[in-house]
Amino acid sequence: MDQVGMGNAVQERKGALTQGEVLPRPASSQSEGFKQGRTVLNSLLSGAFAGAVAKTAVAPLDRTKIIFQVSSNRFSAKEAYRLIYRTYLKDGFFSLWRGNSATMVRVIPYAAIQFCAHEQYKRILGQYYGFQGKALPPVPRLLAGSMAGTTAATITYPLDMVRARMAVTPKEMYSNILHVFVRISREEGLKTIYRGFTPTILGVVPYAGLSFFTYETLKKVHAEHTGRSQPYSYERLAFGACAGLIGQSASYPLDVVRRRMQTAGVTGHTYGTILGTMREIVAEEGVIRGLYKGLSMNWVKGPIAVGISFMTFDLSQILLRKFQQLGYNVR
């Protein structure tokens, strides 16, 4: 074939491609995309399971803490125990988990998004700072946690409002989650669903940032000192407990403010702004008894919940990877 004929053949081939034929993607590109999608799915599933297990374990303590946070009654361990016992006698054992269905509706997507987002932010920041596949430096490590918490809180905030309302009201007031949305929208307006959003985000940034930062740092230090890349389960639980203690202590006053603003419609108060709410709480109850009300209970509940959450997430991730590896070997 002469050069003109060869040129025509090439042009015809190009024309055929542009008219609808698609060149196959390289196998490595397809494999990388599949691997990334599987990693995201694993993170979502593990995060959802971790959040559900952790919150269910501490639900009675969490409900008691919220009731004290939104009232002007003085908190003490004795009063908390009395409240739990009275609730048990009046409404039965399972009433201690009232509002937990709303908690699950919020926590499952929240934890799934938060853990998944954290893994993705770690990957993105690792690529940016040149630490891909390795432990991030301190500042990016803190940033990844804060961004993950902010992402999850923004998406799931209305469900957090519903949980707070169901936790502090008698069961006759709201029959189910949908009923809460309908009544709030009709009686207080749609904007009420995002009341308390600003203090939530201001609290989530240090809470999520410090929690993930502490947990990742402790795992890094542990690996350096023991030579084991994977801590034992009880070590993960302890690292998570430390992370929860530090994170929740740093952001607790904003958590109180958030709860007051969320439940203002059913407690008879009219909280408008973050500073206004803080001033009113301090004026009525004082700094420690007001803004840090229930913190001692949080020092029990928080480390347990966060420890269980981090441990469950890590172990679920390891288990899912083993199952997938087993599937490949069978094939």
TrEMBL record:
Keywords, ordered alphabetically: Membrane, Mitochondrion, Mitochondrion inner membrane, Repeat, Transmembrane, Transmembrane helix, Transport
Catalytic reaction(s) noted: dADP(in) + ADP(out) = dADP(out) + ADP(in); ADP(in) + ATP(out) = ADP(out) + ATP(in); 3'-dephospho-CoA(in) + ADP(out) = 3'-dephospho-CoA(out) + ADP(in); AMP(in) + ADP(out) = AMP(out) + ADP(in)
A GO biological-process term: transmembrane transport
Gene3D superfamilies xref list: Mitochondrial carrier domain
Membrane topology of the entry: Multi-pass membrane protein
Cell compartments where the protein resides: Mitochondrion inner membrane
GO cellular component, one term: mitochondrial inner membrane
PROSITE patterns linked to this entry: SOLCAR
InterPro entries in the cross-refs: GDC-like, MCP, MCP_dom_sf, MCP_transmembrane
Entry annotated with the keyword Transmembrane helix: yes
Primary localization: mitochondrion
Solcar repeat intervals: 38-124, 136-221, 231-319
Region entry Disordered, spans: 1-33
Family assignment from sequence similarity: Belongs to the mitochondrial carrier (TC 2.A.29) family.
Biological function: Mitochondrial carrier mediating the transport of coenzyme A (CoA) in mitochondria in exchange for intramitochondrial (deoxy)adenine nucleotides and adenosine 3',5'-diphosphate.
Xref: PANTHER family: SOLUTE CARRIER FAMILY 25
Protein name: Mitochondrial coenzyme A transporter SLC25A42
